[in-house]
Design brief:
Elements lengths: L6 H20 L5 H6 L4 H6 L3 H37 L4 H31 L3 H18 L13
Helix pairs in contact: 1-4, 4-5
Length: 156
């Protein structure tokens, strides 16, 4: 039991830290490429997308948004549950179960994001993919990474 004493402080730290990021997390997380699509056709122009490609990108974006909503809702509900458990000083087994559910939800979110990336890339020619990577690198260099740290030297 002594080795599991770290779980409660870790869960409490997580419960306190995640509500701060929940406002951002409740909005559908989007890859940098998807955010660029929303900029009035900027991506279409920069990459030279055909009208068919642009329409497919838009459909893919809507599909991604629909697929992410239940995952985001579940994450929010699990965090509420975890906070209640921590406040009620629930047993470690209950906390671990909720933490496992959160881990599974996170994996599902990451899987969905990778599926979106794969589908997005399949719509592009090699030249368009190269242009997207260069544009993303330049964007990160000028605006920093998602975590507001320096973008230089960050792996793609």
């Amino acid at each position: 039991m002594k080795n599991s004493n770290w779980i409660i402080p870790a869960a409490l730290g997580l419960a306190l830290a995640l509500p701060l990021s929940r406002a951002a997390a409740d909005q559908t997380p989007a890859p940098a490429d998807q955010k660029a699509m929303d900029k009035g056709g900027k991506l279409q122009k920069e990459l030279g997308l055909t009208k068919d490609q642009a329409a497919k990108f838009q459909a893919l974006k809507e599909s991604f948004k629909s697929a992410m909503k239940p995952l985001n809702d579940k994450r929010r509900d699990l965090m509420t549950k975890l906070k209640s458990q921590v406040d009620a000083k629930a047993p470690d087994a209950d906390l671990q179960s909720t933490l496992n559910d959160l881990d599974a939800n996170h994996k599902a979110v990451m899987d969905q994001m990778m599926q979106m990336k794969t589908q997005m890339q399949s719509l592009l020619t090699p030249t368009q993919r190269a242009k997207m990577l260069v544009a993303r690198k330049n964007h990160r260099r000028h605006h920093g990474s998602r975590h507001n740290g320096p973008a230089e030297g960050m792996p793609e």
